[in-house]
Every structure is written in C-alpha cells, then in structure tokens.
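Dear colleagues,

As part of the handover before I leave the project, I'm documenting each prediction I ran so the next person doesn't have to rerun anything. This entry is a single chain, and its sequence is reproduced below.
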Amino acid sequence: MEKILIIAIYSHPEYYPPTLNLIEHISDKYEKILVLHRNIFGFNWIYPSNVKLQSFCKKHNFREIEKSPISKKVYWFFCFTLLLYRTIKKYKPDTVILYDSIPILSWRLIFRWIPSPRVLWYHNHDVNDNKYLKKISISFMAAKCEKWIFKKLDIFSLPAIERKIYFPLNDLKGHFMFIPNFPSLRVIGRLNQNQKSSFSSNNTIRILFQGSIGPLHGIEEVISILKNTIKGKKLILVLKGFIDDVYKEELEDLAMKLEVTNNIIFLSPSGYAEVIENARSCHIGIGIHKKNDIMNNTLGTASNKIYEYASCGLPTLIYDNIHFRSTLAHRKWVFFTDCTSESLLKNLIAIEDNFNELSSIAYEDFKTDLNFEYRLKSVFKQL
C-alpha cells in the first residue's frame, strides 16, 4: 500500500516558505503527497514530482478573497472541508498535517466519518490572538476548536518555543516538536547560484523589507533618513510584498514630503524564488517588529524573513527589545535599533564599514545552525 501524506492548509503553501521547506524534505518519506489548499492562486513554485496540489471552486487572488462577503467565505470553507473529507476517504493517508486552526474546524466536522491516520500532526504558524479575531468569522470559530484537537494529536509543532504557553500542552496526546522558520540549505542552494554582491560594486546601499508591508516595521523611520548618504552612497529602500493601498499612499506622501520619492522601490509579491533573487540584489535587511502582541513578542525564531536575509548574506536591522536581544544578541550580523534617526544611521555606517565580513558571517551562521535541516532529524524521528 502506498504511504500517503495529506497536508491541509487554509491558504496556499507558497505564502509560507517554511511549509515549502517541509514539503521539499518530507517528500523523500512518502510515495505520494497531496496538498489541499483554499481557492487562492499561488505563484510558480516547482514541487517534487510526487507532490500534487488540490483546490476547489474558482481560484481568486489574495485581495479578492480578503474583500469577499462572509457568505462567500463560509461557502468556500465548506467546499474546503468537503475536499478534505473526500480526499481522506479516498486515499486513507498514513499521515495528515493540519496547518493553523481553520483545518482543525474542518477536521472536527468530519472526523467521525473518516479513517484515522497513523499520524495526526498540527503545526501552528501564528498564535490566534483574540484581539484580532472578528467574533462572526470562521477564524474565530476555528480558534475555539483548537484546544479540542490536542487529545487526538500525535505531533504538535511550533516555530517558537516561547509560544508553548499559549497552547494546552497538558492535553497533548503525542509529542511536541520545535521547528524554527529557518530557510532550507537544499532550497536556498538551488535558488542561489551566484556570489553575493558587495558594497564596492556600486554606489548605492539597498535596504530591503520583504513580507507583509505595514506600520510598526520601522519603514517610516527608514524613509526619514533616505536623504542621507553613507560615505557617498545613496540609500535605496526596497519594499517587496503585499501592501494595503491606503498605507502605500501614506508612504508615498511621506516620501514626497521628504523629497525621497526616487529612493523608494515598491515590488509586487512573487514566488519564493523571486523573493530570494531580489534579496540577493540588496545589502541590508529590515527585520524590525515593533507591535506589542503575542505573535510579535515571540518572533525570535519564527520570523522567516530574518533568516532568509542571513541566507543571502544580508546584515539585518532588528528592533531593540528584550525578546530579540535574548534570541539574536550573539549574532554579529544583527544590529539592534530603537528606530531613531541617530540609531539607524549609526548602524548603517557600521555595516558599510565592515560589510563583506558581516555578510560572510551571516551566511556562515545560516549554513551552520540557522537552517531547516539542522532540526530535521528530530522531525523525522517522531514520524
């Protein structure tokens, strides 16, 4: 009998690079992997040959889904649940991985009528925070179901140890695993074919923020210093990822006011290969997280962008607080800032003065212990 893995994620795996890393490596352990995702477009990722993506209904882009009425969202959720039910009934998988809480709600609706897998695994990307959940929403109902599943789990995993306190681990039937959101040596090695450029190769310093672009990431503060030069080099801010139209307009207005419009580049979201390719064209990463909530206070090993910067040899600006200090203070390529102009400029000068060495150290740290493979043996041992 074929050894089959079913992965259920109520988004698209290409929006979660750590999920792509797991699929890449776990594909060696199963004859067939079926990834069930909601009706949202991905990009252009090439999966292992034994991995097949399945969805339902007509696909939409991320913004269309976000702005859809609740009636459509409920309908799409039940379509996803039906897809999960039919796929498990048909294939009787050895292992099922549920990503985040919405597939748990689906599981609760169907578990009495499906065969139990040998391994039921729940991985949580982001802790549910009640202050962000609308009470009339699928996410709210799914969050209420989360505790229910722990008595049925064989594996529960998190990207940050600090988040354990937010889950009922006393109810966990099986094993807990810590899987940081580090990039994969195998994947990055395939994507990174050229040597990293250095500051000496041009007369600009490209400062990168990648991911969901929004307030409290130090972006406005970086814009405020873009008129400066560092040893004659022009500062360029590269913003790559999803951005709300209103917030983008606010940033453009600020740039116009400060006369630095030509110092900012907005790049659309793209597949992971293009994300890494763009990062390699930049010099410094922004890993600043100033929000004071559960997710942002436990991001030390969960912010994949920080470690993707390292994998591309980018020294990185990090917000100076106790949490990030406790996790990253010993990394020489990490520079802590309180986001004042003085602090930012001081760090940029320090990085420029010693860029090549810092870039090499960041990459070596990635190769040594800040990679997905470093934790892989413990993951497969539990399986």
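The chain is about 35% helix and 15% strand. Residues 230 and 278 are 22 Å apart (CA to CA).

All the best with the project,
I.
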